[in-house]
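Class, discuss our next protein.
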Amino acid sequence: MNQIEFLKWIAKGYNPYTGEKFPDNDILRNPDVVARLYELAIELSEDKGKRAMKKETLEIDPAVLPLIQVIEPETTISSISANIKEVTQIKRKVLNDRIREYLVECGYLMQYSENKYFAMAEGKQVGIYNKDKPAKDGSAYTNVYYNVEAQKFIISKLPEIFNKY
């Protein structure tokens, strides 16, 4: 998670490590502190915003949304992106990155390291959830999965995700 995302989570009233909401009497819920955190996040994001404008401009026509199929009862973002790519011809990496960026910005996911994400309470409400999986070495890892409702939600948000750039 970068500094801007970290500050935004705190400003929204959530512990960026656990996703738990801060108590109402916590100093981090004080309106003045929240406002200052948001101001700092805005200042930090100015440079990032300028770099984002350099991203390739892509748009998704809402008319193609019915052509995108829901894959299976539970799947990963990579599989969803592969399915969307079939209709839009947008590269999977671009789809993965922009969808995840949107889900983090909206509070559905939390990014806790470069390529590691965790479903938040808001994400669980739309069908995004965490699932522990066994690794080959016997340890466990957590993966984020998307049920049918989450897939439909992402597909419905594609114009918003891509047409804002």
Notes: The chain has six helices and five strands. The first strand starts at residue 74 and ends at 75.
